[in-house]
Specification:
alpha+beta, Jelly Rolls, 8-stranded mixed sheet, 5-stranded mixed sheet, about 30% helix, globular, dioxygenase activity, Fe2OG dioxygenase domain-containing protein, IPNS-like_sf, metal-binding, Oxoglu/Fe-dep_dioxygenase_dom
């Protein structure tokens, strides 16, 4: 560290991270305390250099209507083709008429708000860095490993294959968490059928190999930020899942990197955002793309979102995943080695959100 750089003098990042973590109040605690400037650990120094920061309106993430996919073969064929195209080019799409009632979506968002509006003492009792607790609540899962902190708090729970006991879930959103998760899993099974068909596989293929076995429900809160231009709600990253189903509120802030432009994933009433995860890109041998995305900070929050990761994540599993044999050939050899979901996610957790994809680490070395 050079003495001439006065801004660097007296900045002990590790101590500041530790002090923030030990409050167990998260980002919302800072906002509730009335801060007018964000702590330095949240300052993203190269934000303006990271491609176009404005949110392009030239593109739009595809919206796909799932109405009639089970009743009309011709309609299903059209939907499958749209999903194939979106998964290959965008890695993202929104779905409407997906079968989950709007009342359930609204109640789920209200439940997340209810969790974060609880008394600080209640939430502090749930705050933990143990990723395998039945319910995990903290700020920044990668607080100690990532280069910079994000302006968000999170609670999450593994809802499948081994759901928690009801008493382990927060009373303020217990019932809706269970209901929403059940509906999510049903939708996931439908989506994996459509994705299988988009890959020209048996419709049951992705479900049969366990893509829908695990469900991790992750509930984010992005409080209003006094200096949103200096930080991010979520750093540029890809998801370590097969697919992710995202419920977002009306505030927006999610952006996807498309043709080197940040494109706003604008909220559509009643819609859910679907994105391809890293492990789906791995098993499809790069046919479907896990695309970088981020969340910009906002000044009007709190924004809430619910990301349902179809993955067994860190839960014990010895099941190996590699490129699907029907999708590889002499001309298109496997690009990735086999791995377990747990190994993949453990690698992600150890690195944190550092702005780069973990997938190259799992590439076949002789390519």
């Amino acid at each position: 560290m050079e003495v001439s750089n006065n801004k660097e003098v007296d900045y002990d990042r590790a101590s500041e991270v530790k002090a923030f973590d030990e409050t167990k109040d998260g980002v919302k605690g800072l906002v509730d305390a009335g801060i007018t400037r964000i702590p330095r650990i949240f300052n993203h120094p190269h934000l303006d250099e990271d491609s176009d920061n404005s949110g392009s309106t030239r593109f739009g993430v595809p919206t796909i209507d799932l109405a009639g996919v089970d009743e009309d073969a011709a309609r299903r064929k059209v939907v499958v083709e749209k999903i194939r195209e979106a998964s290959e080019t965008w890695g993202f799409f929104q779905v409407v008429n997906h079968g989950i009632p709007v009342s359930v979506l609204e109640e789920m968002k209200s439940g997340v708000h209810g969790f974060y509006e609880q008394d600080s003492e209640v939430k502090r009792g749930l705050y933990t860095r143990d990723p395998l607790r039945p319910l995990v609540y903290n700020s920044n899962f990668d607080l100690y490993s990532s280069p910079v902190a994000n302006w968000r708090d999170t609670f999450y729970c593994f809802m499948a294959p081994h759901p928690p006991k009801p008493e382990d879930l927060p009373s303020v959103c217990r019932v809706i968490l269970v209901e929403y998760s059940e509906q999510d899993r049903n939708l996931g099974s439908v989506l994996f059928e459509l994705l299988s068909e988009a890959l020209e596989l048996n419709p049951n293929h992705l479900n049969e190999i366990g893509c829908n076995e695990g469900l991790l429900v992750v509930c984010h809160c992005y409080p209003a930020c006094p200096e949103p231009e200096l930080t991010l709600g979520a750093t540029k990253h890809t998801d370590d899942s097969f697919i992710t189903v995202l419920l977002q509120d009306h505030i927006g802030g999610l952006q996807v990197l498309h043709e080197n432009k940040w494109v706003d994933v604008s909220p559509v009433p009643g819609a859910l955002v679907i994105n391809v995860g890293d492990i789906m890109q791995l098993i499809t041998n790069d046919k479907f793309k896990s695309v970088e995305h981020r969340v910009v900070a906002n000044s009007v929050g709190p924004r809430v979102s619910v990301a349902s990761f179809f993955s067994t994540s860190l839960q014990p599993s010895s099941k190996l995943y590699g490129p699907i044999k029907d999708l590889v050939s002499e001309d298109n050899p496997p690009k990735y080695r086999e791995t377990t979901v747990r190994e993949y996610v453990s690698y992600v957790f150890a690195r944190g959100l550092d702005g780069t994809s973990p997938l190259p680490h799992f590439k076949v070395t002789n390519l």
